[in-house]
Write a structure and sequence with these properties.
- The protein has 242 residues and is of the alpha/beta class.
- The protein is 35% helix and 15% strand.
- β1, α1 and β2 (51-56) form a beta-alpha-beta unit.
- Bound molecules: fe (ii) ion.
Length: 242
């Protein structure tokens, strides 16, 4: 369709009322925000773009062995206390869990989930390859009554359309990284994000924000067709139910 070839920026107010369900805004715990001040600036900028809620989802992976549930919960409480009434939006705490050799240990402490029902677990793999045990890990997640949400599937270099469809057949949910659509992760990730959006494979969308720099330009460089905008709106609505 010729109409689908015309792409434009996100309309003003498109993100009004949005909930960011994936961010590294909790400072000093992973490769995301480094200081309290940076995080507050990040939250203020998200607010200026229309976001009214954010989930802090720090990395739980073998590279950050000190990130266990108890430690992260304490740091989150410290952050809330320090921010006090200056907090520009509603916050909740989740986690982003790498499917690596430490993953199965997480069952003991329980997962920091994305939703009120405490069911949705945000999971990621490395960009280059999937751990050979990842499928079993995800099976265990489901056996325990959790629902895996795969973070930014478009960014996995090893993954392609047939694999995404197999994952959907196993009932994993998918979270789009908003900025994949602006090409910041490269052309292949952008093309896969557009394909997956078109195929209706995504369930949620998040910023996966790691730092405050270039937030505005990353958002303004997203160019979408009318159909893509409509599909993205559906994901934003799904986020609001979390
Ligand atoms: Fe992330």
């Amino acid at each position: 369709m010729v109409f689908d070839l015309f792409k434009s920026s996100l309309p003003d107010g498109f993100l009004a009322g949005a909930c960011d369900m994936h961010s590294h805004l909790l400072p000093g715990v992973d490769d995301g925000f480094k200081s309290f001040e940076d995080s507050m600036e990040g939250l203020a900028k998200l607010k200026a773009k229309g976001f009214v809620k954010a989930k802090m989802t720090p990395h739980f992976m073998k590279d950050y062995p000190e990130n266990i549930r108890e430690t992260i919960e304490h740091k989150y409480q410290d952050f809330l206390q320090k921010a006090g009434n200056d907090l520009p939006m509603e916050l909740t705490l989740g986690g982003e869990y790498m499917l690596d050799s430490h993953f199965l240990n997480r069952f003991e402490e329980g997962f920091l989930t994305l939703d009120k029902m405490q069911s949705l677990v945000l999971c990621e793999t490395s960009y280059m390859m999937m751990d050979p045990m990842a499928k079993d890990m995800l099976y265990q997640v489901m056996l325990k009554g959790y629902q895996p949400v795969i973070a930014h599937p478009e960014r996995y270099m090893y993954a392609s359309k047939p694999m995404y469809k197999r994952w959907k057949d196993r009932e994993y949910l998918f979270q789009l990284n908003l900025f994949s659509l602006s090409g910041v992760y490269g052309k292949p990730a952008e093309e896969k994000a557009r394909m997956m959006l078109k195929e209706g494979l995504y369930d949620y969308v998040g910023t996966d924000l790691h730092r405050v720099a270039n937030l505005e330009s990353k958002i303004s460089s997203i160019k979408l067709s009318k159909k893509e905008l409509d599909r993205l709106s559906v994901l934003l609505e799904n986020n609001k139910k979390l």
